[in-house]
């Protein structure tokens, strides 16, 4: 083991997006030594892509807002499968986390009286999203990065963790490699925080970057942790659909928040045709009322475009399938129409949605101030993840914490837009705080040389199979299959076929080979990412097969309705003693009475 | 379907050189798509950085036909495909492999710049009151995605290799964002004059031209910073009053 460079920290954070950075900052503030490992350069994590804003009930724009309404909105959006402890903490703590970002240098858009401006978003009753145009994620990650680099955190850029090291069930470190030179590294740590984001690369059409290969999910699973709610994958309703090379790139919900309307090829505003029961008291009765809502009329209800993402994505899917779609298999998203309402609409759009304007202009030759965009659903986010304690964010493996997208609980069956950025900072902070406390009360564990050796041997195996199948081929086959069979509309037959397909893909993955050397070799990296993608794909498929109903992000055409039988448990998968994936249903703990009352009051 | 040739800088150290790859060019494709296709079809070891593929993360910087560009925002239909498309790594930083360079120097420079230091909160709840117009000026600088294309094109770094003495356009933008931040109370002008070497910039505006975020780097960030440095350190009248002050 001595041949590998070894780094020792009290707390090791894996992943440097919003949650990882916030966890590292908090742990460092608790005066423990912190290492931060990230696959890319610092500041490039997926948080950078977040556009619309960060949800926090600050009531700067509408004074009727408070944590209770935010809590009720989050639970309703998640179809009541959420971990209500997390939903409560999130709603209560998000405003402080946003104010803290401002104290660290973030510059949000302002209200007329100079406070942080908030905008409307799907599923949020009041304007609640603090934002910077449509580049809120960039502002957030840069703020955390620029603050974090002065907090004594040791950053390991372009490093990948492949295996967690265990000592008697407790996590004691991680094994990985640096991407630039391909050298192996051993990280000894008393506590580890996973903040690796999601699993979007398991699907073909996705808004996610190459990094989103479910690393943290798989690391935790292989260490014995529970994964929960994996059937709930969010398909964001509006991704670009044309040209083919940009298919899946996100079009912010902010477009709809600013008044954008969805139209089919007949020019119908089809979202008015299907309003779910849970929201029937909260939707505008006509276009006019919808416009009044987005322009701040407190007595108006939201336009149906601002219903939750799961619903909007399904409606778009239905229009396309019924032959009412746009030329390239999407529908039209039109913000240009607001020129009927606003004198300087083009300027307004460019100012409110600058990167959308830029993105469509440069990648699709579309001027969104003049013409409609073509959009369709894209894999965006996984609600499921590592099952954690709602207060401490510790997983079922002692010393292993998780925060942000890799953790499950806050969002239940469907996440509301804007609740992701707030999730990152609220639970990033909590994970960092509790990981540091854990590190203070536990010594450094013993790293087993055998575990390190077998991790190293496994990582080098693709070189022994030079001439084996190109790893990208396997990855593409997996993405095609998951998109096709476990995507936005699911059924028993397709998913059973996907289970068989996964077995075949596993065989292929174990035979992939790579030429060249270990220095910055993306093919090798892809070989090592494949098992993670396969693990999360299996977790998604198994969980989705078991949930024989439709709820939130999980829609089954063979069981198109919600079912009471499935209304009070979460689906959990873990590794069985024989190494095979086991599934069980875990009952949701009874909600506290005061919170039940909050939900009743906000119905 | 049309095919195109991509002449890509491949390899490490002395053995690195151009290698031609042929792949399909389809409608709407960007250069990064071509690189991905080549990875999947013919060379899985071809190294490049990328993340978002939407011009938001600033990872896939390269020189395309000699122009510093983001590969994800360079469409093939803007290039002449009758001749090979030349893709090279950035030249201002040490080469690692293929299209990847060692940009760590940038992170070290940034860390040395004095961090944000806000004034006391305006309201008892710990918050501030700022007008939108005061925010907008700085928001332009905060659009920076740290692609380092401005550093790459800057002749002070690229041709004169003044890396130890010159912070480069990216860090002038960063510093300008801090200096003009409506809440900030720190003074970084001494740093800019000495360690930052802002005097080396002779405002050729190359950085502004290549910025994929269209930040007016030279006019809005560098020139105002230069003026502030001049006012603070070289203005004869201010100097006179300073001497007078010291004597008192």
Notes on the protein architecture:
The complex is a heterodimer of chains A (603) and B (248). Chain A has 603 residues and is an alpha+beta fold. Chain A is built from 16 helices and 18 strands. In chain A, the strands form four sheets. In chain A, strands 1, 2, 6, 7, 8, 9 and 16 form a seven-stranded mixed sheet that branches. A four-stranded antiparallel sheet of chain A has the order 15-10-17-18, covered by helices on one side. Chain A has a four-stranded antiparallel sheet with strand order 11-14-13-12, covered by helices on one side. The termini of chain A are far apart. The model of chain A has no long low-confidence stretch (mean pLDDT 96). Chain B has helices spanning 31-41, 104-112, 132-142, 149-153, 155-158, 169-179, 189-193, 206-210, 217-233, 236-247, and strands at residues 2-10, 17-25, 61-64, 67-70, 85-88, 95-97, 100-101. Chain B starts with a strand and ends with a helix. Chain B has a five-stranded mixed sheet. A two-stranded antiparallel sheet of chain B has the order 6-7. In chain B, helix 3 packs antiparallel against helix 6 (169-179) and helix 6 packs across helix 9. By secondary structure, chain B is an alpha+beta fold. Chain B folds into two domains: 2-101, Ubiquitin-like (UB roll) (Roll); 104-237, Alpha-helical ferredoxin (Fumarate Reductase Iron-sulfur Protein, Chain B, domain 2). Chain B has ten helices and seven strands. Chains A and B meet through helix 3, helix 4, helix 10, helix 13 and helix 15 of A and helix 1, helix 2 and helix 3 of B.
């Amino acid at each position: 083991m001595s041949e590998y460079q070894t780094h020792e920290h009290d707390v090791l954070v894996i992943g440097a997006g919003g949650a990882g950075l916030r966890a590292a900052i908090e742990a460092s503030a608790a005066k423990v030594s912190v290492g931060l490992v990230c696959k890319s350069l610092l500041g490039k994590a997926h948080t950078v892509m977040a556009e619309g804003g960060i949800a926090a009930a600050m009531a700067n724009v509408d004074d009727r807002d408070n944590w209770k309404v935010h809590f009720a909105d989050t639970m309703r959006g998640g179809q009541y499968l959420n971990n209500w402890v997390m939903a409560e903490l999130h709603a209560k703590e998000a405003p402080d986390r946003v104010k803290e970002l401002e104290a660290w240098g973030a510059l949000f858009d302002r209200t007329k009286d100079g406070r942080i401006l908030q905008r409307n978003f799907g599923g949020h009753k009041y304007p609640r999203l603090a934002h910077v145009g449509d580049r809120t994620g960039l502002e957030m990650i840069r703020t955390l990065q620029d603050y974090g680099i002065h907090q004594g955190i040791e950053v390991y850029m372009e490093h990948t963790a492949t295996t967690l090291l265990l000592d008697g069930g407790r996590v004691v470190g991680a094994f990985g490699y640096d991407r630039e030179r391909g050298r192996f590294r051993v990280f000894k740590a008393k506590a580890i925080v996973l903040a690796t984001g999601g699993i979007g690369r398991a699907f073909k059409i996705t808004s996610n970057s190459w990094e989103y290969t479910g690393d943290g999910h798989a690391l935790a699973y292989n260490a014995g942790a529970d994964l929960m709610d994996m059937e709930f994958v969010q398909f964001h309703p509006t991704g670009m659909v044309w040209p083919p090379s940009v298919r899946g790139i996100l079009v912010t919900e902010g477009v709809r928040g600013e008044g954008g309307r969805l139209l089919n090829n007949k020019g119908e505003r089809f979202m008015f045709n299907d309003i779910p029961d849970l929201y029937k008291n909260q939707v505008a009765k006509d276009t006019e009322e919808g416009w009044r809502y987005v322009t701040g009329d407190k007595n108006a209800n939201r336009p149906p475009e601002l219903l939750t993402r799961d619903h909007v994505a399904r409606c778009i899917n239905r229009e396309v399938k019924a032959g009412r779609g746009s030329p390239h298999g999407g529908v039209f998203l039109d913000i240009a129409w607001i020129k009927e309402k606003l004198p300087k609409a083009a300027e307004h759009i460019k100012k409110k949605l600058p990167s959308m304007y830029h993105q469509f202009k440069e990648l699709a030759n579309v001027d969104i101030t003049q013409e409609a965009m073509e959009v369709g659903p894209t894999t965006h986010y996984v609600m499921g993840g590592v099952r954690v304690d709602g207060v401490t964010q510790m997983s079922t493996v002692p010393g292993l914490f998780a925060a942000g997208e890799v953790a499950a609980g806050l969002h239940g069956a469907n996440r509301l837009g804007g609740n992701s950025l707030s999730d990152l900072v609220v639970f990033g902070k909590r994970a960092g705080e509790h990981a540091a406390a854990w590190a203070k009360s536990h010594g450094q564990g013993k790293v087993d040389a055998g575990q390190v050796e077998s991790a190293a041997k496994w990582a080098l195996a693709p070189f022994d199979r030079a001439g084996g199948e190109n790893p990208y081929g396997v990855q593409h086959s997996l993405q095609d299959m998951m998109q096709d069979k476990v995507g936005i509309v699911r059924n028993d037959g397709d998913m059973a076929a996907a289970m068989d397909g996964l077995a075949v893909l596993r065989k292929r993955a174990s035979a992939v080979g790579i030429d060249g050397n270990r220095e910055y070799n993306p093919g090798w990296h892809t070989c090592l990412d494949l098992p993670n993608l396969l693990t999360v794909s299996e977790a998604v498929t198994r969980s989705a097969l078991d949930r024989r109903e439709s709820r939130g992000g999980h829609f089954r055409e063979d069981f198109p309705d919600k079912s009471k039988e499935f209304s009070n448990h979460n689906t959990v998968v873990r590794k069985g003693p024989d190494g095979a994936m086991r599934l069980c249903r875990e009952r949701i703990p009874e909600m506290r009475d005061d919170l039940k009352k909050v939900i009743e009051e906000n119905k | 379907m049309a095919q195109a040739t991509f002449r890509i800088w491949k390899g490490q150290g002395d053995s690195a050189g151009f290698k031609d790859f042929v792949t399909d060019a389809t409608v709407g494709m960007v250069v990064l798509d071509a690189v991905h296709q080549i990875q999947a079809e013919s060379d899985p070891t071809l190294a490049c950085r990328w993340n978002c593929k939407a011009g938001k993360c600033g990872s896939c910087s390269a020189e395309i036909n000699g122009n510093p560009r983001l590969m994800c925002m360079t469409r093939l239909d803007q290039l002449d495909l009758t001749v090979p498309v030349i893709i090279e790594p950035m030249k201002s930083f040490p080469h690692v492999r293929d299209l990847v360079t060692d940009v760590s120097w940038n992170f070290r420079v940034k860390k040395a710049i004095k961090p944000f230091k806000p004034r006391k909160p305006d309201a008892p709840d710990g918050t501030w009151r700022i007008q939108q117009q005061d925010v907008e000026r700085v928001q332009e600088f905060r659009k920076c995605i740290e692609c380092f294309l401005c550093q790459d094109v800057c002749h002070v770094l690229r041709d004169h290799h003044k890396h130890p003495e010159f912070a480069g356009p990216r860090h002038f933008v960063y510093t300008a964002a801090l200096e003009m931040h409506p809440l900030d109370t720190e003074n970084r002008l001494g740093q800019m004059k000495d360690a930052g070497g802002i005097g080396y910039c002779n405002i050729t505006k190359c950085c502004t031209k290549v910025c994929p975020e269209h930040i007016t780097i030279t006019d809005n960030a560098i020139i105002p910073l230069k003026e502030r440095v001049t006012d603070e350190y070289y203005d004869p009248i201010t100097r006179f009053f300073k001497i007078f002050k010291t004597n008192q």
